[in-house]
Amino acid sequence: MRRHFDDSRFSRWISVWVSAFGLLPALLLAVVGVQEYRAGGSVLWAGAGGVLVLVAVWVLVRDVRALRAAGGDGSR
Fold it and tell me: What distance in Å separates the CA atoms of residue 75 and residue 72, rounded to the nearest whole number?
């Protein structure tokens, strides 16, 4: 039997992966921001890095919830 390819589920999986990999540069910028702050830079660097991490985590959680709600967790 031929299986139907579901584009919407596939695009949700891509969205989750993009969000997961988007967390990496956010964490890197947060680390650099804290290092800049410790080296005498503005506290805004550390604050901006923290905000970027929070936003990246929020987007990842939102995408994972949407994937699970759509039944795209891989179980059939």
Answer: 7
* Angle, in degrees to the nearest 10, between helices 7-38 and 43-69: 160
> Over the stretch 9-37, which tens digit does the pLDDT of each residue have?
788 889 999 999 999 999 999 999 999 99
CA dist 9 and 14 (Å) reads 9
Predicted structure pTM score:
0.77
Rounded Cα distance, 70 and 13, in Å: 11
- Which two tokens mark 67? 């994937």
CA atoms of 1 and 8, how far apart (whole Å):
21
User: How is residue 39 written in tokens?
Assistant: 């080296």
